[in-house]
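discrete fold record:
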Amino acid sequence: MIGIFILARKTASSMLSDAIAELVRKESVLFHYLFSKNKQETDERDRVESLNLSVKISNVTQIYNSANGELFNNKEAIRYYYPSIFALEEISFMLERAMNNKHRQTITDDQMGEYLVVFENIAKHFQFQSDLNVRNMSHLPQYNYMRASLMNIQRNCAEQRKDINYTGKNTF
């Protein structure tokens, strides 16, 4: 009976990639909310979005720390996630700054599409453990550091992923 509970339990390392994908998608939604020409901002929604993003970041960090402390996992695979988590925290910080800037510039629909595709490609990369092709994006007015962080995540995922030996999805 005890063996069933131990074997059926989900490990932090098996949940990490899905948690990161959730975080990327949350940042994507917030990015659209903040930079779209279709403004729908309210102070209440700003607070809710900010809280939700903080919870997602905190969850990913906790799951990463737990996964790093597990006895039976692929430490190399777990460490692979750290640069992306760090860059996602930077993006989160920039999104929070943008939320507090009521005079931020909006972007065109084409530019919005570029960024949303990159966010979703990154999310799918983590969710499905798939390859990622680096996509270039146009410069983001006022928040070019966000573009740099997205480019860093893409490069990290494309380069370092091929150096890690996986036997299947979420197998560490």
In short: Confidence is low (pLDDT under 50) at residues 167-172.
